[in-house]
Amino acid sequence: MNTSQSDCLAWGERQLGRAGEAAAVAIVLVKRRAWSTVWKLETPSGRFYLKEAAPGFDVEASLLRALCGWRPAAIVELVTADATRGWVLTRDAGRLLHDVMFDDPENGRAHLHSVLMAYAEIQADCQQADAPPFAHMLEGRSPAAMSCSFAAIVQDDELLRAGGATVDDFAQRDRWLRRVDQLCRELAAFGLPVTLEHGDLHISNIMISGDGAPRIADWGDACWATPLHALVMCLDDVAGRHKIARDDPWFVRLTRDYVATLRHGGTVSDFNRALAVARALAPASGVLQWSRGISHMTADARAIMAGHIVKHLRSHPLTRETI
After folding, report:
1. Distance between CA 30 and CA 306 in Å, rounded?
2. Dmax over Cα atoms in the chain, in whole Å?
3. Is 3 exposed, middle or buried (0-12, 13-18, 19+ CB in 10 A)?
4. Which pLDDT does position 320 carry in this prediction?
């Protein structure tokens, strides 16, 4: 364990005391990744999670402070955060929705509907005067910004080579650039507002508490984008894990209710077409997600992230010219 991680653990234990909680009786390393390290702190009064985020992902501390002070109902309960060092201490929020949906599909679907409507309300309310200044906190991922950021990554020869790119991959580069630029222009044409996006919203980042309240966790990939990329990720995650067809009536109703909650003036048909464009852009979103914070990482970690970038590039649908 390095000095930074030791300091983070010591800080977390101090914050438990300041919050009136008993000292941890067990500290368990949950995961250590290039982008964050997470520990589970077991105390006599309950379980807590302590996260140390790497540069590029450390916005979560400031973001959780803002979200929990503004719209706390659907967010994991924040005990405290150190925005300068990217340290976050949260109270355990319950079971993964992923597990709930396997054990009780009907109940799991109800929870997912509830949390997505709460999430859409947050996205809609980001335009209100009382909203925190999210746009100043977060990486910009409007369609135009997304196209430019994607181009900068794809044109980085050294990065792609570190990720294992081949001669054939480099030969596809112009097609990737044209395709993503085309899709970004199509997405911009729908006129959807740019708002808070979770960035990694799948059913293992949604927790169900003992009293049945769903809460969204792990905001380290959040950005300022059109309100579709996280919805695409979440729906596709559920469809893949639980074998639900995209035209399933429940998915149709979920999408319709999401549109209504966003309070955007477009029709459901327009929204569905925009959703299809966002789905086609999912590999590009993945490229941007895996490139986050990469300039601050060690060579080994950078190579791992670059490998994921190349994988997402290879999965990009280059054969279709229209949606």
Report:
1. 24
2. 60
3. exposed
4. 53
* 3-class SS of residue 306: helix
Would you mind telling me the total number of residues written for the chain in this entry? 323
> How many Cβ atoms sit within 10 Å of the Cβ of residue 317?
13
Report d(CA 16, CA 63) in Å as an integer: 21
Strand ranges for the chain from DSSP E: 26-32, 36-43, 46-53, 78-82, 87-91, 95-96, 139-141, 195-197, 206-208, 214-216, 223-225
User: For the chain, which residues score pLDDT lower than 50?
Assistant: 322-323
- DSSP lists the bridge partners of residue 87 as 52, 82
Q: What is the DSSP letter of 212?
A: S
- Residue 152: CB partners within 8 Å, gap ≥ 6? none
- Is residue 266 within 8 Å of 275, Cβ to Cβ? no
Indicate the angle between helix axes 282-291 and 143-154, nearest 10 degrees.
Answer: 60
Helix (H, G, I), strand (E, B) or coil at 262: helix
pLDDT of residue 319: 53
Burial degree of 227 (CB within 10 A; 0-12, 13-18, 19+): buried
Task: Output the CA torsion sign for 226, 229, 234, 238.
Answer: positive
